[in-house]
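Show me any protein, fold above all:
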Amino acid sequence: MGTLFDYLEWRGDLSFSIVPLNEADLYILSKIGTPDLTGIVPQEMIMVRIEDAVRDYFEKYPYDEKALGALASTAILKSMIKLPEIPRYGDLRLCGFRKKLDPDTEEQFSALTVRLPDGTNVVTFRGTDDTLIGWKENFNLSVSMPVPAQTDALEYLEEVAAELEGDLIVAGHSKGGNLAVYAATEASEEVKARIREVYNFDGPGFDEEFWESEKYLSIQDKIHVILPEDSMVGTLLIQSSRAQTVSCAEQSFASHDGYTWSVTRDHFTRCEGLSDFAKNLDKSLDDVLNGMNSEDRRQFVEEFFGALQSTGATTLTEIWELDWAGTGNLAKALLSAPRFNQFVGDLIKLLFRNAQETQKNSGTEKKKSRSRSKKEK
């Protein structure tokens, strides 16, 4: 087993005609549009070579592994700078880069289309960026749907289908995975017929109504949901019952980075299921959210992000780098937010209770296992 960087060494010299496109490739391709390619890749469906796009990007933005924000994986830029040198990806073409950040509608959206040598179009949606607006939109998923980014993702997919010939593959990581599933599900029947596969890499789920809808059921066999065993993002809301779990070298939130997922040959390495940590967190969050109506959730989101924005910060990096005075002001703002405090208090109680239940059940299973072993002897 290895990681995606090992995969680039194993398969990088082999064309897609020799080793077909696979989920490892699609995760890598889904991250190309993470940096700001405005002015480098056209908004229109006009193709540019990946070699030219990468060169122009690093001429405009000198390499800095922290340039994408405090929580972004440093592997993204490391991978991007290598891709043009790898024969497998040297003939890729990029087009249709979009980036939108709208404080009024609380939307953060970005998309990019990657065209393969055989004419297949990989429509990719990026996840949440470093902005507080982007993170607030994530939280808004628990309040109402569609959020603006989902609407734009659907429009973008329909536009790509109208402008470009060839099969479509839709993919995204984190919120981008949620956008990929939403856009493919809501697409017209003509577009759905051209979609080959959809990949959601550790992106949030949806409500029960979405998973039971005829639109989703009509395309469910093409949708793949992949979660790391310690998933904290992909388990938000209700996730697909068809989701698959993969091994990861990191734990908790660090496992969200697909470059830390284990790779065997040309696919992520499957494991038995979510870790006890992920199950406990998922159940606790569900229990808290199920006890809140939509208005309670909306006010919780407003209080929480109102406190963050009261510091004057507009990004998570700025929150991370607050001085002592700023940190104190943030703490005061959070302490004065009643629904935020109730949410945190309820979550801590449920995490503790569910952890005890998990430990108890685990102990019971071990006793049963020992008992079975004795009987077999």
User: Anything to note?
Assistant: The two ends are 35 Å apart (CA to CA). The chain is about 45% helix and 15% strand. The mean pLDDT is 89. The beta strands are 48-49, 93-102, 107-115, 121-125, 168-173, 195-201, 223-228, 244-246, 263-264, 267-268.
